[in-house]
């Protein structure tokens, strides 16, 4: 069974940086696209960043482009989200996700992902 465990969330001030990690287990990791999404209460889960299976292609929401960086370490079965210049509007629960199908590109749609982590809270104070 695929398991995704996020870590690294917390309370920070505006302008600070934070790195989220997502450790995967239960199947091979290196050949599956990965994504990060975030959600605030009462709203839909929004795409943040995605990375294809080999890390060559990355995708970002316009709201985080230039501030966030997604990367993966296939040897450690881990995907990262480096967040810089954080803003209060970045406050959310952040989820990592992986597709059920191998290879291919990441997707901006949450419905294309088959497995999700439990989420980690990121709170940015002004």
- This entry's quaternary arrangement is single chain
- Beta-strand content: over 45%
Classification by helices and strands: mainly beta
Uncertain residue ranges: none
Calculate Rg over CA atoms.
Answer: 13 Å
List the helices and strands in order: EEEEEEEEEEE
Overall residue-averaged pLDDT value: 95
State the major sheet: 7 strands, mixed
How many DSSP H or I helices?
A: 0
Q: Compute the number of strand runs.
A: 11
Q: Which of globular, elongated, flat, extended, rod-shaped describes the shape?
A: globular
- The helix content, as a percent range, equals under 10%
Overview of the structural elements:
By secondary structure, the protein is mostly beta strands. It contains no helices and eleven strands. The chain has strands at residues 3-7, 10-13, 18-25, 34-39, 46-51, 58-60, 68-73, 78-83, 92-98, 115-116, 120-125. The strands form two sheets. Strands 2, 4, 5, 6, 9, 10 and 11 form a seven-stranded mixed sheet that branches. The chain has a four-stranded antiparallel sheet with strand order 1-3-8-7, with no helix packed on it. 34% of the residues are buried. The mean pLDDT is 95.
SSE diagram, text form:
Elements: E1 3-7, E2 10-13, E3 18-25, E4 34-39, E5 46-51, E6 58-60, E7 68-73, E8 78-83, E9 92-98, E10 115-116, E11 120-125
Parallel strand pairs: 2-11
Antiparallel strand pairs: 1-3, 3-8, 4-5, 4-9, 5-6, 7-8, 9-10, 9-11
Structure keywords:
single chain; 126 residues; mainly beta; seven-stranded mixed sheet; four-stranded antiparallel sheet; 11 strands; 47% strand
């Amino acid at each position: 069974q695929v398991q995704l465990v996020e870590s690294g969330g917390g309370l920070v001030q505006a302008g600070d940086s934070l790195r989220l990690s997502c450790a995967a287990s239960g199947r091979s990791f290196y050949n599956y696209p990965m994504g990060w999404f975030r959600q605030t209460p009462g709203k839909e889960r929004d795409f943040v960043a995605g990375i294809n299976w080999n890390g060559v292609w990355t995708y970002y929401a316009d709201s985080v482009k230039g501030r966030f960086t997604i990367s993966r370490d296939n040897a450690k079965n881990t995907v990262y989200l480096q967040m810089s210049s954080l803003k209060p509007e970045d406050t959310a629960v952040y989820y990592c996700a992986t597709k059920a199908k191998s290879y291919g590109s990441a997707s901006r749609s949450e419905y294309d992902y088959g497995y999700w982590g439990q989420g980690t809270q990121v709170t940015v104070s002004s």
